């Protein structure tokens, strides 16, 4: 009887630890203060109100495509515009320009239950002093490795890095 009681307590304890899930916080794997920012160009990211939320968004295009959903146990450590701004500022890819980024889309989309992609859409404006010298629209997307929160997090981290590189290449051609 005692062995049965101990086995029952162990199983109950294991079940409680499995169901006691707390939200995990994620970022783009950029250190909070990667480099000295003095003297560098700055990046400012603006976004619609609905993107200023730290929940990870997804949409089921194959069923109720107008409904935005959120993962329950995974969240960004900050809103996507803040994470994107931080990444671009510490990367130094703005070169000698000040940038205003207008973030338009940042979500995971499911084409089927087993097939998802992440997308990032924004417009970048480059300034030299107070003069706007160039504007460029960017649209990036890629399939996720897995159709879940982990796939979304990994995909967005990759897309944010790609966006920095594409901005850098674009700015090399701006005169």
Protein architecture, described:
The structure is a single chain. It is built from 3 helices and 7 strands; from the N terminus they run H-E-E-E-E-H-E-E-E-H. It has helices at 2-19, 80-91, 149-172, and strands at residues 24-26, 43-46, 55-60, 68-76, 98-112, 115-128, 131-143. Strands 1, 2, 3, 4, 5, 6 and 7 form a 7-stranded mixed β-sheet that branches. The radius of gyration is 21 Å and the shape is elongated. It starts with a helix and ends with a helix. The relative contact order is 0.16. The model is unreliable at 1-18 and 35-39 (pLDDT under 50).
Whole-angstrom Rg = 21 Å
CATH class: Alpha Beta
Helical content class: 25-40%
Report the average pLDDT across residues.
Answer: 85
What is the ordering of alpha helices and beta strands?
Answer: HEEEEHEEEH
- Beta strands, count: 7
Query: Separation of termini?
Result: 82 Å
Let me know the largest β-sheet: 7 strands, mixed
Look at the helices and sheets and give the structural class.
alpha/beta
Summarize the structure.
With 175 residues, the protein is α/β, with parallel strands linked by helices. The chain has helices at residues 2-19, 80-91, 149-172, and strands at residues 24-26, 43-46, 55-60, 68-76, 98-112, 115-128, 131-143.
């Amino acid at each position: 009887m005692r062995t049965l009681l101990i086995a029952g307590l162990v199983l109950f304890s294991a079940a409680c630890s499995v169901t006691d899930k707390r939200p995990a916080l994620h970022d783009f794997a950029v250190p909070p203060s990667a480099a000295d920012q003095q003297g560098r160009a700055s990046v400012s990211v603006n976004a619609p109100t609905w993107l200023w939320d730290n929940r990870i968004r997804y949409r089921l295009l194959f069923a109720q495509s107008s409904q935005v959903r959120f993962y329950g146990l995974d969240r960004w450590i900050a809103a996507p515009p803040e994470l994107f701004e931080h990444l671009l500022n510490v990367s130094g890819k703005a070169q000698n320009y000040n940038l205003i980024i207008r973030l338009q889309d940042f979500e995971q989309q499911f084409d089927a239950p087993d097939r998802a992609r992440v997308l990032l859409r924004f417009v970048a404006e480059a300034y030299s002093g107070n003069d706007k010298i160039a504007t460029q629209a960017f649209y990036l997307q890629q399939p996720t490795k897995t159709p879940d929160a982990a796939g979304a997090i990994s995909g967005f981290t990759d897309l944010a890095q790609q966006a920095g590189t594409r901005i850098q290449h674009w700015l090399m051609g701006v005169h």
